[in-house]
Amino acid sequence: MKLISAILLTTLVGLLYSCSVKPEKDTDMKYSSAITFLYYEDFSYGVEFFEQILQLNLVMDQGFARVYQVNEKAYLGMVQKKDEEEVSGNTLFSLTTSNVKSEYSRVKVLEVYELSEIKHFESIPLKSFFFDDKEGHKFEIQQFLKADDVEKF
After folding, report:
1. Average pLDDT, integer, range 26-35
2. Which of 30, 86, 121, 150 has the CA that lies 20 to 30 A from 99?
3. Residue 5 has what pLDDT?
């Protein structure tokens, strides 16, 4: 009887412990945030739509591009569409990383299309590269360079 009681007690303690232990948060996430950019020919309409209809808060204004916060780490951005040469679609999905060179090396050997070189945008400032998937969806992997932006995104 003592043996059965000891086994039951040990099992119960183990069960209670496993229920109370929370898995560690994955601190080695590849991406820290995401921004979905929509391209607007009528930029002032886009600003009004984001601010009046969606009621989003502006967190970055680069003049030709604006970023609005949706929640803690999700953002919706808008870009002034100048011509079809600049972008062939109306949407760009941007992922923020802390090491754009490493991500470029990783993606470069995979099946992506229209892969650009890493570009440095001094006016923002950030480094990024662009590519498409097989169906033409546009992606960017970016790394912010200014401390305020790194903390924000």
Report:
1. 78
2. 86
3. 36
Q: Taking a C-beta distance cutoff of 8 angstroms, is the pair 68, 107 a contact?
A: no
List residues bridging with 71 in a β-sheet: 74
| Domains held by the chain: number | 1
Q: What is the CA 19 to chain-centroid distance, rounded?
A: 32
Sort strands 91-96 and 65-71 into parallel, antiparallel or unpaired: unpaired
- Within-domain flag for 17: no
Q: Which residues of 64-96 are buried (b: 16+ CB within 10 A; e: fewer)?
A: ebbbbbeeeeebbbbbbbeeeeebeeeebebbb
Closest CA relative to residue 94, chosen from 13, 11, 34, 23: 34
Count CA atoms closer than 13 A to 17's CA, side-chain side.
6
Q: Which two tokens stand for residue 47?
A: 């600003």
The helix (run of H) or strand (run of E) holding residue 132 is strand 126-132
Instruction: Say if 16 falls within a structural domain.
Output: no
For 86, the domain range is: 33-152
pTM value is 0.73
In a domain, 104, yes or no: yes
Q: What are phi and psi of 12, to 5 degrees?
A: -65, -45
Q: What is the CATH number of the domain that holds 123?
A: 3.10.180.10
